[in-house]
Fold this protein.
Amino acid sequence: MVDVKSMSTQTKISILYEKDYNLWLQENIAAIKEHRFNDIDYDNLLQELEDMGKAEKNALASNMKILIAHLLKLRIQNDAPYEMKKSWYESVDEHRERVCDALLNTPSLKTYLPEAIEKSYSGARKLAIKEGKRAKYGVRKPSESEYPTDCPFSLEEILNEDFYYKFEEQNN
């Protein structure tokens, strides 16, 4: 049997990480506020901080993937009826806003944008192709070759809230 009384405070807090995450968090916050640096669970705290950064990058890339997929659909299936494209426009607006909000809240993510576009484009292309194959009601089903293998949009175009109107102009 483990003698909890003989354990250091840091060891007790470290055990809390597995047993009660919220209490572990509160204990570490208290230790930091009270400058009890020997009581901080540095290993798990470091892992949590690294994971927080990854989570923000993953969320940015995920929103970028949907945004680019629907920009691709608007570009390639610009002859689809407006009723069908309406949800694509709404999705572009929503995910662009999420990306812009993330950049406002975490300005350092701006340096990650080119990498986020590069990482998310392949998935965005696959998603657009998959959704394009499900076209109904006489709407043209584009071939895979119509979807560029490299992202056809610049960062400025992706973030420009008026950019997709260019596709409507091509259709008129």
Q: What stands out?
A: The chain is about 65% helix and 0% strand. Helices lie at 9-19, 21-33, 42-76, 82-105, 113-133, 155-159, 165-171.
